[in-house]
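Appendix B, record 7
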Amino acid sequence: MPTCASTADSTAWILPCPPIHSASALQQAFRQGFEKVPAVDSRGLDRVLRTDPARDQIEVQAQTPWRSVAQALHRQVPALANVVARGVQPDTVGHDVARNAPGPDGRPVVALVESLTLVTPEGDLRRTSRTLNAELFALAVGGMGSFGALYSATLSLSALARAAAAALEPARLELAAPSRGVGHRLSLYLPPDTVEAFLTDARAQALAWHIPITGAEVRRTLAERETVLCWARREYAEITLALGFPVRMGGEVLRTQFFRLLVDSAIGHGGIYAIASTPEASRKQADACYPSLRRVLAEKLRHDPRDRLQAPWYRHHRQLLGL
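C-alpha cells (predicted):
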C-alpha cells in the first residue's frame, strides 16, 4: 500500500512539486499522492487567514511563523511582538501544535488553540475542537502530525494576550566547558525543586564521559490535562542541554548511550524527556515517561486503518514499541 511520508519535521509535508497554498489543493494532493507521490509540500501554507476580534479569534495556516502572527496582532496583542523578538517562540504555529510545545508563558500551546482544520489520510477536510470531534482534537494537539496534515489553527486572542503578557525568557546558564565536536541538544522536564540536583548529576556524568556541556537553558512550564500524549502532567522546569560530542566513528552510538544516561537521571529525579525530539530514548524509558503512547499509536491506526500516514516520528515509535 502506498504511504504518505513526512520529513523529520512532522508538520512539514515535502515533495518535489509546487507548494500547496489552499485547503482544496492540500486535499487533492493527498488524494492523488497515495497513487503518484509519497508526500506533499505544505510550506506555502504560511498565511494569516482571518483576524476576528469580535469572536476573539485569529485563524492561521499551519506553516505560519509566530512572527507573522505577532505582526497581524500588533494592535490586539502588542506584547506578542516582544515575545517573538526575544526568540521565545521561534517556530511555526503548526510545529508547536504538533508538539504541544510550551507557549510564551510556559503553558502548553493547547491552551491557545480554539480549533484545528486537518486533512485526513483519506483527503477529507475535518474541523476539530473541544466540542467538535473532541477526541480527535485531544489526539492531534501534541500528536506529532500522526492524525492528519494540519491546514490551519484557530487561536484565542485573549489567551494569546494573557500568555504574551506573562512570558518569561529561558534562563541561560553559561558553563565553563569549551565548545568542541558536534553540538547536540537534549530537552528534559524536571520538577523545579530537583533542577539543581539533576544538573549536578549531569555535570558529573559529562565529566566522566568526557562530553562537555557547553550550555544550558531552563524555562518554566505549566501543566495541562487536555491532550492524550501529555508531557505537561505537572509544573516542570524545561532543561535544554547543549552537548559537544567528538567527531569519530561510533559517535551516534555514543550520543544515544549518553542521552539515555541523562534521561535515566531525569527519571530518577521525577522528570521525563521531550518525546518530540528524543529518538534516542529506549523502550523502557518511553513506557516510563509516556504511558499513553501505546494508546496514541493504537488510535492512529483506528483513525487511519490503512496506515497511510507515515510520519518518521510515528514509524520510529511503532518500531521502538514493537508494534
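Remarks on this record: The mean pLDDT is 88. The radius of gyration is 20 Å.
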